[in-house]
User: What shape does this take?
Amino acid sequence: MDADVLIVGGGMAGCGAAFEARYWGRDLRIVVAEKAAIERSGAVAQGLSAINCYMGMRWGENQPEDFVRYVRNDLMGLSREDLVYDVARHVDSTVHLFEEWGLPIFKDPASGKYVREGRWQVMIHGESYKPIVAEAARKAATEVVEHVVVTHLLPDERDPHRVAGAVGVDVRDGSYVVFRAKAVIVSAAGASHIFRPRSAGEGYGRTWYPPWASGSAYGLLIPFGAEMIQMENRLVVTRFKDGYGPVGAWFLLLKAVATNVHGDEFEKSRLPELRQRVGAYADAKPMPTCLRNHLMLQELRAGNGPILIHTERVLDTPEKEALGWEDFLNMTVGQAVTWAAQGIDPRTTPSELILSEPYVMGSHAVCAGAWASGPNDIAPPEYRWGYNRMTTSPGLFGAGDAIGGSAHKFSSGSFTEGRLAAKAAVAFVRDHQDRPAVADERRVAELREVLFRPLETYQHAQSRITAGGVNPDYLQPMSGLQRLEKTMDEYAGGTSTDYTTNDWMLGKALDNVVALREDLSRLGAADLHELQRCWELTHRVWTAEAVVRHTRFRTETRWPGYYYRADFPAVDDTNWRCFTSSVYDRTTDRWTLSTRPYVPIL
Amino acid sequence: MDKCKGCMECVRLCPSDIMHIDPRLGKAFNIEPSMCWECFTCVKGCPEAAVDVRGYADFAPFGHHVTQQRAADRIAWRIESRGGSVREFVFPIRTTPWDSIASPATAPPPTTEAAHGELLSFEPDYLAVEALPTIPSKRAAPTS
Ligand SMILES: Cc1cc2nc3c(=O)[nH]c(=O)nc-3n(C[C@H](O)[C@H](O)[C@H](O)COP(=O)(O)OP(=O)(O)OC[C@H]3O[C@@H](n4cnc5c(N)ncnc54)[C@H](O)[C@@H]3O)c2cc1C
Ligand code: SF4
Ligand code: SF4
Assistant: This one.
């Protein structure tokens, strides 16, 4: 299948890319490749109850500069401020489009302004957020190809660093799908299930980031050779225990407080100790997300748990009660189910909060992802080598979780970044008309073998067992996933060590992950569903390897509360106020780690 | 599940690819509950209201029931808790008719000049401020 612009992943960023690519590329073939159905794919499948990134410039509420300062603090001094500024200055137009399309946004009847949840967030009745956004993408795209899991990017026949498309498998009919494209935008999301989840058994899929967030953004970019940054900057979130209901509306809008089991608001009393550990970052307002996690964790370690959120003190009207339930029904139905099942009435009973297992992503209060070129008018020369949001590989763009350094995009900012990447990708296609990318056909043939190998492995090895799934010759994708999670959890800073690791442990994690990467050639898939799981696992393993290598390289603890290097417990601004960077070379199977400078733009 | 007609809509929609049709019964079932997010996509998408969900076995006791009815512009929820209490809520979901969003290609075509600038589609109008903010890099490289 031919495309001018291929968009891999039709989530928030991918839908934004499709919309914008059509505006600038009227005559172009814009193709979206998606592993599910875009109405309900990605992190916004259930809907959301807030848009977490909106400036409100028209009411003079915030300017992009304010947002840059906020993100700088929240990330402990480290973000690509040109990219952050760029999202902030465009995001209002995205939100205004959403409203015009029919997304119900809470409004103050007196002023006509959007109702704020917090300084950057606006409240929405967002159950249908994704179907609405997907409708816009469908209208814009030439074609939306669904139920195709994209597994690899394709190189150009003459320049192996330049992208010329992608390949994948149609998980309905098992066909090999080859996309030949002049530019590719990767928007295939970050990852859950890199670290072992807290939930077990049937609830194993109840991670905060959805189980289908398979790290494909990283799993596609890394082996292709795109430079990655901040892969150690994993996310741990404070959530309602078990159901993982978000806390934003409770803290910011309903003004609920959290205490330890004795009823103490521990954040204040622990501040002096925090200053000792991280210096002036402790007094940043608002307190950085990781540091709030850190304080909670200190309480739990001291035996003062659980942390309780006092919903019972704030639900004093029927309207507030409805708002509290709607918050979950719109975006985390599982939390409402948990309350119902456990017989919890939030008007009378506080709920427990918990710190989640770590996730790897680039659109939330963290910024793992590809090193990308910044906007022409803002980016300093170190951050600019061509087209906005283009990775270090020509023609290869990213958006949403795929792009590093650009934190706090959330749903609206990811859509906006998709728009930015698409406009630049269309310009790239036009500027390279004389020499469009041509896919390397040997690689196309080679990948066909690779892609379907797990089905063959399974077929061949079946005769060695009578029943069950334990086979001496192959690894089932679920077993491989559990092997990955166990190692990452125990050695790379998961929940079982309270997010703590050190050089030795990271060395062990690396050995284990590399061994697993080698063993991926022995994956076995009984059917197409398992074949999908094999490739999702492969993308997760690439992601995990990058996480381990970056974490080991950064010899400091920059984000206490996300993870701890026990051997380097301090924040080291002298040596480490910079980005960690890695490049994988497919021809030599080697990784190169280095640093990239932090350049403030304000 | 008795009401399932095997129409495949939940199979199409499930973001985790775990709603499949049982070939013997011709009815849908969850092939991999451990990779389910309880996102209710299958529940909302089923035209027969055939999908029933109960909480994850590892922490959710029996005796609860969360159901919904989704119309073009609203969703109604009914939450029955263990212990018997019932709550009902209705929330809006969309302010415009479905299928009413226009393709961006219906807008007048952009100029070549616009294609090289920093404005995105429908800007600056949709920013609702006069101009796109910028802060020229203090150390900008000469543009070639
Ligand atoms: C529970 C929860 C609550 C949140 N709350 C809020 C909130 O209140 N407000 C807010 O603004 N943001 C919120 N967010 C964050 C927001 O949802 C994300 O930041 C945003 O969706 C990221 O956009 P994305 O396009 O990078 O990823 P996604 O939207 O997840 O899209 C990725 C897409 O890629 C597809 N894909 C993945 N791998 C492949 C592959 N190999 N081949 C083909 N397709 C593939 C996926 O199916 C999906 O469609 C929340 C997220 C969660 C999980
Ligand atoms: S609730 Fe589970 S089975 Fe249903 S659509 Fe969501 S992930 Fe799929
Ligand atoms: S459960 Fe509903 S949506 Fe799924 S196949 Fe049956 S009738 Fe169709």
Remarks:
- The beta strands of chain B are 19-22, 27-30, 65-70, 74-80, 86-92.
- The CA atoms of residues 34 and 58 of chain B lie 11 Å apart.
